[in-house]
Amino acid sequence: MNKGPFRLLVAFLFVSLALVAGAFEKPKTTRRYLQGPLSERLLVFFREGKITFGECVHRDAWKDVPYREQPAHGVWLVRGEADEPFDPAEAEMLGEADGIPLHGQRWRERNLEVTLSACAPFGRRPNVQARLMLANRGNEPLEEKVGLMVRSAAEAQLVFGAPDIYKIYYPPVQPWKALPSTFSSAGKGCLRENDRFVTYDEGGVWDEAAGILRIPLRLAPGEVKVLGFALGKGESVRPDYAATAQAVRSDWTRELTPVKDRSPFVRSQVVQLLQCLARPTEGDFILPRQGGLQRYVWPGETIHVVEALDRLGYRDYARQSVDFLMRFAKADGQIGPFANGWASETAYSLEALASHCLLTGDADCWRRHAAAALGGFRWIRAKRAETATGGEGIVSGLFPPLKSTDSKKCFQHWGMTDLANEHALGVLVAAAERFGEKNVDEIRAEWKDYRAAIGRTLDRWRAASAGKDTFFIPLAPDGRNEKSYRDAHFFYLHPAAFVEGGYLSADEMHRLRRWLLREGIANENGLYMRHTSPHPELRNHVWYTTWSEYQWSVAWRRVGRADLAKQALDVCLNLSVTDENYVGERIHDQTPWFFPWSPNASGSARILKMILDDGRK
After folding, report:
1. What DSSP string describes 280-344?
2. Contact 423/380 with Cβ under 8 angstroms?
């Protein structure tokens, strides 16, 4: 019987039932990294029993490396006459409490128990070592068809919803079956496609027509069969899972020394942060990836990674992350553009530099980048001066309309761009004072003037909300096009930066929160950013988490409401983290199977900072 259509029907029903089931389940882990820190390879173990091998190709001209052209290869565990995958919803996730990437998954179907495990050694160019264990847990002989489908293609073709999976998760196997089999036998126990390989122990039989490594399976009661295999590039290596796993445990235990006395949860977040610190295939520098399958860098996210690393004792990694951002300093002072060209990228890069140097006293790093930092400050000042005379739809003293997020819309997005600029200048003033910069008064004067301009603009909306029990702050500083921006699903992280920036009194914070609650943007659990979507299955069910919650937690602590700061942390721990301690970017309030951008470096970093602020281990 061909179970493919049946499984697709089951998947559809599963997702449909999830959408009408109880709200706010803990999300599900859909993928886990295998590589160690500073690897140029991106090795990913997916919940459906798939392992992919990609690389971190980088060009400073970001668009020269389009994601959908990045090559990869992988294997997918399949079974039965129709070569169907095991059900990801039925996978028992196996792993270490502190996140050391010795990952495994187990399925039990009747008397057959299948366990797939994988790991990767430290190093710049690691390969994957894996082990498949097949056991008969019954009292009768068992015969089953099991295999590893082997494919090579663009990574976007191998991974459902790649690179970020903004979909409810249930990956179909049909796209893999539709790909041609391009691997060939290259001798006993070795498959190759040019410089890519899969090696395997005795017991596998290569079916080249289907592109599947078959494992003939006839098991007596209680019998266990083990097949080791390796996945890599370059000179082939033989399978040796046991020795690799021992080395992985030893290397990660040493790497986690700075946090050895902290909780397993904290250690697991540090593992994921370090796994996102990559080397490019060309060049000797750190690429502080944000996570998921993206090879891009967002400076606004990197700030949080740098601060968490510094606060937990990983100062060298933090410094190298700052060095990467400052690579993009231009002659006119702008730092960037990065992959998506946010107007605030210069500010975020300055803040990452200044914050690192303040937290660590790293005078060498400051001296190396001080001239570029001054140039970045002057670029911000010059751009801001462009609005000095105001104009139709332009508020003077703020940045001109520019691309402020990954959205292509351009307007004076003051709650993102201007608040980021002003906050960065404040941190830059502190660093310039600390390290004796002669231009500190110049920077301070601009920062104070910028803050005053934002305050004057905010006063208009403060007056409009006078006497009300709510406080409204629009997306654009003049309040234009509010409905159209919101209808276009543009409610990006707003208005938490006003709260974090100390612009509001405690009373105004409560009134603003009340407005967010009534609009359905926040909820009583402590989430602060509903992220609407045009897609019917997502609609108003998606919440962008950790960034706004972090900003509100900082502000609540400042005004003496530690209880509400704790609520913001607890809601992230309860709803933005899987049972395996993986953090994503967004959650769906009616299904746990929507969990994009995981692993997520800055999400982990913001939760770590909240934990440290709260005094937890």
Report:
1. -SSSSS-EE--BTT-----HHHHHHHHHHHHHTT-HHHHHHHHHHHHTTB-TTS-B---TT--TT
2. no
Q: Looking at the predicted structure, is the pLDDT value of residue 5 above 70? A: no
The DSSP 8-state label assigned to residue 434 in this structure reads: H
Distances in Å between the Cα of 315 and the Cα atoms of 40, 347, 357 are 21, 21, 10
What is the rounded CA–CA span in Å between residue 562 and residue 578? 25
Helix (H, G, I), strand (E, B) or coil at 50: strand
- C-alpha–C-alpha distance, residues 217 and 214, integer Å: 9
Q: Binning pLDDT at 50, 70 and 90, where does residue 420 land?
A: very high
Torsion of CA 271, 273, 274, 277, to 10 degrees: 150
pLDDT digits (tens, 9 = 90+) for 340-391: 999 999 999 999 999 999 999 999 999 999 999 999 999 999 999 999 999 8
**Using CB atoms within 10 A of its CB, is residue 342 exposed (0-12), middle (13-18) or buried (19+)?**
buried
* Contact between 85 and 48 (Cβ < 8 Å): yes
Determine which of 2-11, 178-187, 307-316 has the lowest per-residue pLDDT on average: 2-11
Length reported for the chain: 617
Number of C-beta neighbours around residue 391 at 10 A: 11
Written as six digits, the tokens of 427 are: 């941190």
**Phi, psi for 467 (deg, rounded to 5):** 80, 0
Task: Say which residue, 531 or 226, is predicted with more confidence.
Answer: 226
What pTM was computed for the model? 0.95
Greatest extent of the chain over all pairs of C-alpha atoms, in Å: 85
Residue 137, classed as helix, strand or coil, is coil
* CA separation for the pair 23, 292 (Å, rounded): 25
Three-class secondary structure of residue 247 per DSSP: helix
Count of other CB atoms within 10 angstroms of residue 25: 16
CA distance 139 to 123: 45
H or E element at residue 569: helix 562-575
Mean pLDDT of the chain: 94
Q: Tell me the backbone φ, ψ of residue 198, rounded to 5 degrees.
A: -135, 125
Closest C-alpha to 37, from 250, 252, 257, 274: 274
8 Å CB contact between 586 and 531? yes
| Residue entry with tokens 């990452």 | 352
Percent helix, strand, coil in the chain, to 5, is: 40, 20, 40
Half-sphere exposure of 596 (CA within 13 A, CB side): 18
Q: Give the pLDDT confidence score for residue 491 in this predicted structure.
A: 67
Shortest CA distance to 580 belongs to which of 47, 15, 35, 6? 47
Q: What Cα–Cα distance (Å) separates residue 186 from each residue in 190, 192, 196, 199?
A: 5, 6, 11, 10
Q: Which residues contact 177 (CB under 8 A, 6 or more apart)?
A: 83, 149
Q: Which of 542, 472, 483, 484 is nearest to 513 (CA)?
A: 472
Distances (CA, A) of 68 to 65, 71, 196, 488: 9, 8, 19, 26
3-state SS assignment for residue 40: coil
Task: Report the alpha-carbon distance of residue 420 to residue 417 in Å, rounded.
Answer: 5
- Please count the helices (runs of H) and the strands (runs of E) in the chain: 17, 22
- Token pair 């010059």 is found at 382
